[in-house]
């Protein structure tokens, strides 16, 4: 889904639920300037953390913000048929750092958010820690990945995995000059 559609969906849910920008600021703890960009051209998301906080504040699953289609079980995504959902930028004036491809797109009753993520070297430039409810499981398939987890730093290579509690501040970045690829599964409790 294009980022503009996510912004439009958030704005629509806010209107539908009678939630003002001030209400969203209070419910999410996110900066007013950041939230004020929703639905505008210069919109950006530095990580999934803000989207998770927004979805929680609106009383919807993260998938509700990302999905634009409904699929029947089982949901199969073939290699090469993945569709990019969202680009993460560390700042609105910076290059793309992470490219997210949803692997659960359209499964309306899901409790996990599975992604294939291409992590670009630009991800290492500005490491903004994120925190949200739930757990994350990551498997590196290509390249090298650095995971900041609280005060710890972990270097992962192809074939390595990490599983952690997402309430601990964390950040995942590329640890080399060539892109890295991971599969990541986020569990967000109801």
From TrEMBL:
PANTHER family recorded: BLL2473 PROTEIN (PTHR46797:SF19), HTH-TYPE TRANSCRIPTIONAL REGULATOR (PTHR46797)
Gene3D superfamilies: Jelly Rolls (2.60.120.10), lambda repressor-like DNA-binding domains (1.10.260.40)
This protein's name: Cro/C1-type HTH DNA-binding domain-containing protein
Record GO terms (molecular function): DNA binding; DNA-binding transcription factor activity
Segments forming domain HTH cro/C1-type: 10-65
Pfam family of the protein (one): Cupin_2
Lineage: superkingdom: Bacteria
Keyword terms, alphabetized: DNA-binding
Nucleus listed as a keyword: no
Lineage: Bacteria, Pseudomonadati, Thermodesulfobacteriota, Desulfobacteria, Desulfobacterales
Keyword DNA-binding among record annotations: yes
A GO cellular component entry from the record: cytosol
InterPro entries for this protein: Cro/C1-type_HTH, Cupin_2, Lambda_DNA-bd_dom_sf, RmlC-like_jellyroll, RmlC_Cupin_sf, TransReg_Diox_bact_type
